[in-house]
Amino acid sequence: MSQDPRPWRRLYKTAAWKRLAAAQKAAEPLCRTCLSLGRANDGSLTGSGERQGNPRRRYLVADHIIPHRGDAKLFHDPGNLQTLCPDHHDRDKQIEETRGYSERRGEDGWPIDPRHPANR
Ligand SMILES: [Zn+2]
């Protein structure tokens, strides 16, 4: 048996998180990345704007903008949440895991991840 590399996953099972995620999706019912590309995706489209053919991927994710890595304060900060479709959520996570930092940018266009080379 190997140890869970992400012991904070239990945070996602709490009532506090479920409330927070529901409030985020109610306040922002469309994928933020799709919207920035000019598409209104309420979970019924893929990341490239086609109709989502897989019913198991028709949903939206409440995503942490700055990776929390178990930091309870970042985890529970409503200002650190955005709504994403599964495609954009997976894509961002893959980039982050490969590079070791997130490419996400704030409204000023500057990378928000403290681990991004521009912030070191
Ligand atoms: Zn999207």
Q: What gap, in angstroms, lies between the N and C termini?
A: 37 Å
Helical segment tally?
4
Structural class category:
mainly alpha
Mean pLDDT: 91
How can the largest sheet be summarized? 2 strands, antiparallel
What descriptors fit this protein?
120 residues, mainly alpha, two-stranded antiparallel ribbon, 30% helix, 7% strand, globular, binds zinc ion
What do these coordinates show?
The protein is 30% helix and 7% strand. With 120 residues, it is mainly alpha-helical. The protein has one domain. A two-stranded antiparallel ribbon has the order 1-2. The longest helix is centred in the last third of the chain and has 14 residues, at 86-99. The site of zinc ion (ZN) has 9 residues, from α2 and α4.
What's a quick, concise take on this entry?
The protein has 120 residues and is mostly helical.
Give the secondary structure arrangement, pairings included.
Elements: H1 15-27, H2 32-36, E1 61-64, H3 72-75, E2 81-84, H4 86-99
Antiparallel strand pairs: 1-2
Bound molecules: zinc ion (ZN).
Residues 31, 33-34, 41, 47, 84-85, 87-88 line the site of zinc ion.
